[in-house]
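Task card 7
Instruction: Convert sequence to structure tokens.
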Amino acid sequence: MRDEKIESIEPRRSAEEQWKNVIQDMNDKTLFPLCDSSWYMGANIPGKKREQLNYIGGMDNYEVTCRDGLKDWTPFDVVRAVGSKGLVTGITGIEIAPLG
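Output:
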């Protein structure tokens, strides 16, 4: 990120909504929605809508899903430092090291 002079990477609203739907679809297949007092569902946050707050598909699936999401940077706003090429909608040439 430093070499590319990238200051921040933020998901676009459409990407956030898509991720939220993935989380909620998984959640709907569990018993979590039946428990109104679960902190996993945000019960510890006054006024918060009860919805799953965590990815519950397992670490292996999470890693695969995250890496798949990084193949296409168009769902993200990539902000470069002042004086560089400014706001871009995708970047190339980023290598991601395997975990573990």
